[in-house]
C-alpha cells in the first residue's frame, strides 16, 4: 500500500507540473522529428532511429528522476516520509512505478510518431520494440534515482549526466559500430547496459526473429534497472547533508 501511495503522490505532483510532463512525454518525439529532417533521408533515419528510441527516453528519464528525487530530499519531503512505517525499497518502487507509467506514455508517443509520420520500418513485433524502449526508459529512471543519492544540489544532479549517461550514449553503437571501436572501448561498451538496449532495438527493427541474443539483451537491461533500484534503496538517505 505504501508503494501505491507513493505512486499516487508522484503522479498527482506531475499532473500539476505541466512543464515536466511536456519534457518527459513530448521531448523524445520532437527530437526524433528534428533528426529525421536533419538527416533528410528515410534510409539514414531508419538506421539511426532504433538507437534514438532508446537513447532519448533513457537520458530524459535520468535527468528528471534524479532532480525530482533530490528536490524531495532538499525540501524535507523525503525525511517526513521516512519517519513513517515505509521501507526504502517500497518508497523507491513507488517512484519507479510512477515514472515507469510516464515512460510508457513517452515511448508509445515517440514510437507511434516514428512508425507513422517519420516512416520508421520495423521487421519485428512493434509491441516488442515498445517494450524494449520502455525498459530503456525505466533503466534511465532507476539510474537517476540511484545517482540522486550522491548529489547535494540540483546542479550536482545534472552533472551526473555526463558521468553516467554520456559515456553510454557514445559507446552504445549509435555513432559507430561497437565491434569497430578500439579494444578497450569495446570492452567498456560490453559493460554498459545501454549497449544491450540499443542492440535489442536494432535487432527488432531489422529481423522478425526473437532469438536467444535478443532475450539475453532484454534480461541484461531489466537486470541492470533492478540492480540500480536496489542500490538506490541501499544508499537512500533521509536528507542531503
UniProtKB/TrEMBL annotation:
Gene Ontology BP terms: response to antibiotic
GO terms, molecular function: ABC-type transporter activity
Superkingdom of origin: Bacteria
Membrane topology reported for the UniProt record: Multi-pass membrane protein
Signal peptide feature range: none
GO cellular component: ATP-binding cassette (ABC) transporter complex
Domain ABC transmembrane type-2: start-end pairs: 11-239
Keyword Zinc appears in the UniProt entry: no
Keyword entries, A-Z: Antibiotic resistance, Cell membrane, Membrane, Transmembrane, Transmembrane helix, Transport
InterPro entries: ABC-2_transporter_component, ABC2_TM, ABC2_TM_bact-type, ABC_2_transport
Transmembrane stretches, start-end: 21-39, 51-70, 91-120, 126-150, 157-176, 214-236
Intracellular or extracellular location(s): Cell membrane
Pfam families: ABC2_membrane (PF01061)
Record-stated family: Belongs to the ABC-2 integral membrane protein family.
Name of the protein this chain belongs to: Transport permease protein
